[in-house]
Specification:
By secondary structure, this protein is an alpha+beta fold. It has 13 helices and twelve strands.
Length: about 450
């Protein structure tokens, strides 16, 4: 915007300067030529009385003296054919002036001023004054350079004024754009500085009100989720009492797991700040732990289960809990939507440039054409939210989720996780080496 304003001012100023300076330059050239011709005419007319009073010798001496101090040489053509002064050809203009006409005409190299002098015994004498082009245009080049300098100065002045004007307009708009970017990145405390023209101030106020409203809606949503989650504690308490009466340890462990999940939902719902920029974990360790957690179930269902985890740390820009949730979602989908005995595999590998690839494949029927692409839509009797949650976690880390078919024709889900912030992977490697030495 700033460059466009400057370009507009430069274009407008240039048009004004051209429309003003070009005619002025032509007028200066014409005035210089008219002044030179007028001076030559006056000199020629001043010689007319001498032509009628001096003899040929005295006239020649007088003309030579005048030509010595003048840039417009004078030639006098007498009726008897004698020529006094600078030698010049007897042109058609001289012949016309010999008939009693005084005038000036353009000839090659300059302008010829002709003055007819009558009253001589032998006829009419002609005084010729020649004005060369150098005299006609004397001082014109300097005047044009002066005009060009004035025009350049005015143009630069207009650019400086336009730049200051553009800065006064662009600076508050830039502040509003930066505040919008900070809001888009999750910094809900960002506010735009209200400054500049009325329209820009109005946009800044609108953005600030929008930020406040977004914060209020998010706070309300967090409180609503926390309240709804807290209501689950009552039936969970009743369920725990019943489980204790049955003395079923596995059921008690499941109830404890549900209570921990509800507590985590309440904690996350009441969290006021976003995750820190340096969040991350060792994907290999998390995937190995979750795969080992699901292996007993695979053994109970006679499912061959292969686990391939990279030996070196694969640090990703995902929290430990979110990555564990992704692994649980993918494995739960396999156990839920494939028959018992269907094999499955979990593979974690390094991604070029940092991050990791997580692939979960099975020998089941696979996904329908296109796969589950919309949140809350599922053809398998589930809520349809699991894969969407995994996709969102992967995208927040800078990766993607893709669905395809395994080598055996079953389903295959690939999660791409981006690398953490600069320097964090070295910290994870250092901590792992410290644990190994310990």
């Amino acid at each position: 915007m700033r460059l466009r304003i400057i370009a507009l001012v430069v274009a407008t100023t240039s048009l004004v300067l051209v429309s003003f300076l070009l005619p002025l330059a032509l007028v200066l050239r014409t005035l210089a030529a008219d002044r030179a011709v007028s001076t030559a005419t006056v000199e020629a007319q001043s010689m007319a009385p001498l032509v009628t009073t001096l003899d040929d010798r005295g006239l020649q001496l007088t003309v030579d003296q005048v030509n010595a101090g003048s840039s417009t040489p004078i030639t006098i053509f007498l009726p008897d054919g004698t020529v006094a002064g600078t030698r010049a050809p007897r042109s058609s203009g001289v012949e016309l002036a010999a008939r009693g006409q005084s005038f000036s005409t353009s000839v090659p190299g300059g302008v010829e001023v002709l003055v007819a002098v009558e009253g001589l015994p032998g006829g009419t004498a002609v005084i010729r004054s020649f004005v060369p082009d150098a005299v006609l245009h004397h001082g014109v080049a300097r005047a044009w350079l002066l005009l060009l300098g004035v025009g350049a100065f005015l143009l630069l002045l207009s650019v400086a004024v336009a730049d200051q004007l553009a800065r006064s307009l662009v600076r508050p708009l830039t502040a509003v754009a930066l505040a919008a970017d900070r809001l888009a990145s999750g910094e809900l405390s960002a506010r735009a500085a209200v400054a500049g023209p009325p329209e820009v101030r109005r946009a800044g106020n609108g953005l600030n009100r929008l930020a406040i409203r977004i914060g209020e809606l998010l706070a309300q949503e967090r409180e609503t989720v926390a309240d709804l989650s807290h209501r689950l504690r009552t039936p969970l308490t009743a369920l725990r009492i019943n489980a204790e009466s049955l003395r079923d340890l596995r059921l008690l462990e499941d109830v404890d797991a549900v209570e921990r999940a509800v507590s985590e939902v309440i904690r996350l719902a009441r969290r006021q700040a976003v995750e820190p920029a340096g969040i991350g974990c060792d994907a290999g360790q998390v995937v190995a732990e979750r795969a080992m957690f699901w292996r007993p179930l695979a053994e109970d269902q006679d499912r061959p289960m292969s686990i391939e985890v990279a030996a070196n740390p694969a640090v990703v820009h995902v929290s430990r809990d979110d990555l564990a949730a992704c692994v649980d979602i993918l494995l739960e989908n396999v156990f839920t939507h494939t028959v018992e005995g269907a094999a499955l595999g979990v593979r974690l590998s390094h991604r070029a440039g940092g991050g990791a690839w997580l692939v979960v494949a099975d020998d089941g029927p696979g996904f329908a054409d296109g796969g589950p692409v919309r949140r809350g839509v599922s053809g398998g009797g589930s809520t349809g939210l699991g894969l969407d949650i995994a996709r969102r976690i992967a995208q927040e880390s800078g990766g993607t989720l893709s669905i395809g078919r395994s080598s055996t024709g079953g389903g295959c889900v690939t999660l791409e996780f981006g690398p953490p912030a600069a320097g964090m992977e070295r910290g994870w490697r250092h901590r792992r080496q410290s644990r190994l030495r310990g």
